[in-house]
Every structure is written in structure tokens, then in C-alpha cells.
Design brief:
It is a single chain. By secondary structure, this protein is an all-alpha fold. It has one domain. The chain is built from two helices and no strands. It has helices at 2-19, 23-46. It starts with a helix and ends with a helix. The mean pLDDT is 76.
Amino acid sequence: MENKFRSLLLKSLNEIAKKSQNQTAYSLYLALFLPNLLIRGHYAQNL
């Protein structure tokens, strides 16, 4: 389950990276949203 979640996340991040020409916006996205996604995924696993 965790691997599926992780690969899906990486896949979508790669798509965003391809579409995003603004590297600053991309790193900002990573900094803001990735921790939330990981925390949410971690909590979902422990429920």
C-alpha cells in the first residue's frame, strides 16, 4: 500500500516538474505540500 502511494506521488510530481518551467514555483510546491502529503499518508496508514 505504501509503495503504491509513494509511486503515485512520485509520478504526479514528475508530471508537475515537466509542466513547470518555473523552478522556484516547483521547489515552493515541494516545500509546502510534500510534507503535508507524507504526514497524511503516514496517518492514513496508522488508522
